[in-house]
Specification:
Blueprint lengths: L3 H7 L2 H30 L2 H23 L1
């Protein structure tokens, strides 16, 4: 059985983990910040919710297909 250190040294697992984690953090920040900016700009929670829904749909549609 391979030890834990071989996983970090022998492959690009560390790079993949960092890239995947930073992508998830970036997506979470965008999902939080965009509706908040829309709410601050328009004062409408409906506009903020619609913006969040559309941006989530668009991200899933554009980025999920190439990954599949």
């Amino acid at each position: 059985m391979a030890s834990d250190t071989e996983l970090w040294r022998g492959t690009d697992y560390g790079w993949w983990l960092a890239a995947d984690t930073s992508g998830a953090v970036g997506a979470s920040l965008i999902a939080f910040a965009v509706p908040l900016i829309m709410l601050a700009t328009t004062g409408s929670s409906a506009a903020a919710t619609t913006t969040e829904s559309l941006s989530a749909w668009w991200c899933r549609r554009c980025w999920a297909l190439p990954a599949a």
